[in-house]
Amino acid sequence: RAQSAMMPFGQYAAQWLEANAYALTPATYRSYRTVIHTHVVPFFKDVPLGHVSDAHLKRLIAYLQGLQGKGGQPMGPKTINNYLGPLKTMLKGAAEKKLLTYDPTVLVKRLRVPKPDIDPFAPQEIALSGSFLVLPSRRARATHRPRRLHAGAPPLRRPGRRALRVRPPGGVPV
Predict the structure, then answer these.
(1) Cα 87 to chain center, whole Å?
(2) Is the pLDDT of residue 174 over 80?
(3) Considering only CA atoms, which of 100, 101, 107 is closest in space to residue 49?
(4) Confidence of residue 74 (pLDDT cuts 50, 70, 90)
(5) pTM, rounded to two decimals
(6) Which of 16, 32, 64, 162 could hold 86 in an S-S bridge, CB 3.0 to 4.6 Å?
(7) Is 163 helix (H, G, I), strand (E, B) or coil?
């Protein structure tokens, strides 16, 4: 085990990916392979696995934040969190095998992803759309269950609908 802790990070990462390929879908495997070989291994280079710390992970995050993402913009927090996923899984496993003195991933928090400010309809758009919006009925929302997928299950009825009267700006129903 001491010899494994001194193994270069890149070598351990390649071995870990191949050893865990059976549990990943082909798309996930390709995604992990791309992240590990394109960003993670070049960043850590020849750092021994046993020396990887939370400071290394925080420097990796700062490095990723400086890279260009889609559209020439800096790499976004969601993308960086997605890149950290396989790395965290890998290092957690190494800590469980006692190849690391501690799990450095517990000291690194996911980046905050800002929620988009959604305003689907302006008041003018509501006024132009008509005087009724159709919403699921209260009963349908309370009792709706996903369609059963096993063979022989009867199809579930579609939820009922009810109309909601909308007052356009000005207060007079259309």
Answers:
(1) 14
(2) no
(3) 100
(4) confident
(5) 0.62
(6) 32
(7) strand
